[in-house]
């Protein structure tokens, strides 16, 4: 599938976003697998409302990518652009955190159930 065809599919999917009748909007996204198959699923809620750790990760990724934006040549040994290698090395081993879910008894205790 060429990039133009993929961009056309994304545009069509974004134009025909289906919303549920529930109070929150549910978006449907098309997932493409490597074996050529694809399927539809609900968009993760964190795509629209990211956690603080995801926001930090995206900020660090953007900063690393902007430092490497002029490096466009390919590294023949790894088969990756030099900018991608730079970002990978910059973020390697960096942990942004993890949001822990409350246990069932904690939800009941705090009245969140």
Average predicted confidence as pLDDT: 78
The rounded Rg comes to 19 Å
* Helix/strand class: alpha+beta
- H/E element sequence: HEEHHEEHH
Number of domains: 2
Tell me the span between the first and last alpha carbons: 45 Å
Q: Which percent bin holds the helix content?
A: 40-55%
* Outline: flat
Number of separate strands: 4
Write out the strand line-up for the largest beta sheet, numbering strands in chain order.
1-2
Number of helices: 5
Uncertain runs: 15-23
What characterizes the major β-sheet?
Answer: 2 strands, antiparallel
Strand content: 5-15%
Folded structure, characterized:
This protein starts with a helix and ends with a helix. The chain is of the alpha+beta class. The protein has helices at about 5-15, 45-50, 50-65, 80-90, 105-110, and strands at about 30, 40, 75, 80. The protein folds into 2 domains: about 5-45, no CATH class; about 50-113, no CATH class. The model is unreliable at about 15-25 (pLDDT under 50). The protein is flat and about 55 Å long. A hairpin with a 5-residue loop joins strand 1 (about 30) and strand 2 (about 40). The strands form 2 sheets. Strands 1-2 form a two-stranded antiparallel sheet. A two-stranded antiparallel sheet has the order 3-4. The protein is built from 5 helices and 4 strands; from the N terminus they run H-E-E-H-H-E-E-H-H. Helix 3 crosses helix 4 (about 80-90).
